[in-house]
Write a structure and sequence with these properties.
The complex is a heterodimer of chains A (275) and B (368). Chain A contains 14 helices and 2 strands, in the order H-H-H-H-H-H-H-H-H-H-H-H-E-E-H-H. By secondary structure, chain A is mainly alpha-helical. Chain A has 2 domains: 54 residues; 211 residues, MetI-like fold. Chain A has a two-stranded antiparallel sheet with strand order 1-2. The longest helix of chain A is centred in the first third of the chain and has 34 residues. The radius of gyration of chain A is 23 Å and the shape is flat. Chain B starts with a strand and ends in a 12-residue tail after the last strand. Chain B is elongated, with a radius of gyration of 25 Å. Chain B contains 10 helices and 20 strands. Classes of the chains: A mainly alpha (275), B alpha+beta (368).
Chain lengths: 275, 368
């Protein structure tokens, strides 16, 4: 066999395997999308129908339900907590990375331990706390709780990125006459953009997906999408078509954001070199 | 445009003493080259002058005023880092503009400076590239450019030409010298390349293990090395050293080894006798080793071991008993074609002997 043919075969084989793995992971997603376009009867047909006349009825129902309001809540909470986490996370991480702080290892571990906290252990105290503060069923309560988890996460991830920046870059900027704040905003921060993107995605997903705390701290006004989704399963039965449609809508923001920052994300995941 | 003075500067990183008692002065408007083997503290000296490293002890004066409390950004110092330290998220042009923005120059002046540096460093077609898209030599030129666009009081250049090819290096060092002289900006220039050091320096500072070994003009450092280290470090091929015993014979002083015995003149003989030194180290530069086919006064026989032809000279490795040493001779005045295994007569040019005390490793005063 000729050498080139071998190469081609190897390439094709690799692609087939990769495609197979991707399909396996994509399958639930495909299933949800298909289910959202089926009628109630078609969903339960065995063997499953792959070709059918799609209907948008499920989406119509969802768009006119409480779910859209809950989705708005979710997005709001996620966006604010992510934003706040990035601001505080980057500033704190930079401080730990660049300035000698006595006992910084211990403080960092303490910060990380907040992240290790199992939510189930703190959800009751949180409930009592927010009840006495009169913050039950408010977006603010959720933002605050999510910030606890997200800030500690941001600090750890971003510190790694700041550590990667050669100190000479900042020294050069200092010698060029820039103040510490200017050095941070004009040199260091732009260089950790991949880190910011990675952190943002993870914070966003974490906040959007969070279920337990949201379920406990909200009743009506501040209910978020995951809680709302679960509530579509009622005692009177489960409308899988509508749940699927809601799930698809719920996925859209994360997908859009991920596509938006995908270049930074890939660099961030592979912990980009700086020079 | 200001004098730099370091007084007894000592820097420690943890337990490592990186600079020990470093003192020297760079007069206003002159170019000082710091040279020495790697790890000797050259870069740390620059960092101390820039204010990036705080000395544990000692003083730094810039323009005659104590400067230790002045922040790096307020010292009006431009530095070219050995590691380049280019901003990876900015193009070449933006890298150069960055310090100019801080100075709040007018757009016309900025454009003029950028254009000047571009021409100087041959970067015409690369202005809109990012550092990651440039070769090592090009990155180095960007780093140098970022210092040269400024008109500070002091330039600190840390191996600014180390990654360039030979031709560009020679061209650039002349350009740096020209700019520096025209603008009269006090400059400290770190290099381990001696030719470069000799070519640009007003003053040379030779360092080893965090200590200043000698400060002087390039000529002084070359012609009158103060100690064994400087003698061995400056000059290629390096100086030949011979351990010799001091002996008196019939009123004259001789330097004696198993291989040869050299008579000293009365003046130096008296000096050694007065100081009562039993042994000396004699240093002779390869270009001061003369070879002939006929014996002459003060010459001794040796065997040619290696012959390395250079552009217009030979580097010869010679052996006498268990002592080997090198000679550097011009081809046109040699008078014969050297061959390996050949026996020649060698003498060391008078007036170019460097005598050192083996105990202190310092130069013994006298002739030379």
């Amino acid at each position: 066999m000729r050498e080139e043919t071998k190469v081609v075969i190897r390439r094709v084989g690799f692609l087939v395997v990769a495609l197979g793995i991707t399909l396996a992971f994509m399958f639930p997603l495909v299933w949800v999308v298909l289910a959202s376009l089926k009628t109630r009867l078609e969903i339960f047909v065995l063997p499953p129908k792959w070709v059918f006349l799609p209907t948008l009825q499920n989406y119509r129902d969802i768009l006119h339900s409480d779910f859209m309001y809950q989705l708005k809540n979710s997005l709001l909470v996620a966006a604010i907590s992510t934003g706040v986490s990035l601001v505080f996370g980057s500033l704190t991480a930079y401080g730990f990375s660049r300035y000698p702080i006595r006992g910084s290892d211990n403080v960092l571990f303490w910060i990380l331990s907040l992240r290790m906290l199992p939510p189930i252990a703190v959800v009751i105290p949180f409930y009592l706390l927010f009840r006495s503060l009169g913050l039950l069923d408010t977006t603010l309560a959720l933002v605050l709780v999510y910030c606890i988890f997200n800030i500690s996460f941001s600090i750890w991830v971003l510190k790694g990125f700041f550590d990667e920046i050669p100190i000479e870059l900042e020294e050069a900027a200092k010698l060029d006459g820039y103040s510490p704040a200017q050095v941070f905003f004009r040199v260091s921060l732009p260089l950790v953009r991949p880190g910011l993107a990675t952190t943002a995605i993870f914070c966003l997903i974490q906040s959007l997906n969070e279920f337990l705390v949201a379920l406990t701290l909200t009743t009506r006004k501040a209910v978020t999408a995951p809680v709302g989704l679960a509530k579509l399963q009622t005692f009177l039965g489960t409308d899988w078509g509508r749940i699927s449609a809601a799930a698809v809508i719920f996925m859209i923001p994360v997908v859009v954001f991920t596509v938006f920052v995908r270049n930074e994300l890939i660099r961030g995941m592979s912990f980009g070199r700086m020079r | 445009m200001s004098e730099i003075r370091l007084e007894n500067v000592r820097v420690r990183y943890g337990k490592n003493v990186v600079l020990n008692d470093v003192s020297f002065t760079v007069p206003e408007g002159s170019l000082c080259v710091i040279t020495g083997p790697s790890g000797c503290g050259k870069t740390t000296v620059l960092r101390v002058i820039a204010g990036l490293t705080k000395p544990e002890r000692g003083m730094v004066y810039l323009g005659g005023k104590p400067a230790l409390h002045i922040l790096p950004g307020e010292r009006d110092v431009a530095m070219c880092f050995q590691t380049f330290a280019l901003y990876p998220h900015m193009t070449v042009r933006e890298n150069w503009m960055f310090p100019l923005y801080a100075e709040k120059l007018s757009p016309q002046e900025m454009a003029r400076r950028i254009e000047e540096v571009t021409r100087l460093l041959h970067m015409e077609f690369l202005l809109d590239r990012y550092p990651g898209q440039l070769s090592g030599g090009q990155q180095q030129r960007v780093a140098l450019g970022r210092a040269l666009v400024r008109r500070p009081r002091i330039y600190l250049l840390d191996e600014p030409l180390g990654n360039l090819d030979a031709k560009l290096r020679v061209e650039m060092r002349a350009e740096i010298r020209k700019i520096q002289e025209t603008l009269g900006i006090t400059t400290v220039y770190v290099t381990h390349d001696q030719t470069e050091a000799q070519a640009v320096a007003d003053i040379m500072v030779v360092m080893d293990f965090g200590e200043v070994k000698q400060v002087g003009t390039p000529e002084e450092v070359y012609e009158r090395p103060e100690n064994l280290f400087v003698a061995g470090f400056i000059g290629t091929p390096r100086m030949n050293f011979f351990s010799l015993e001091v002996q008196e014979n019939g009123g004259r002083v001789f330097l004696v080894s198993r291989a040869f015995s050299l008579p000293l003149d009365a003046h130096q003989g008296a000096l050694l006798r007065r100081q009562g030194i039993p042994e000396v180290i004699l240093g002779v530069r390869p270009e001061n080793v003369l070879c002939t086919l006929q014996p002459g006064s003060g010459s001794f026989p040796a065997v040619l071991e290696v012959v390395e032809p250079q552009s217009n000279e030979y580097i010869l490795t010679l052996r006498r008993e268990d002592v080997t040493f090198k000679a550097r001779l011009r081809r046109d005045t040699l008078g014969f074609t050297p061959e390996v295994g050949q026996k020649v007569w060698v003498c060391f040019e008078e007036n170019f002997w460097h005598l050192f005390d083996p105990r202190t490793e310092r130069r013994l005063e006298g002739r030379g």
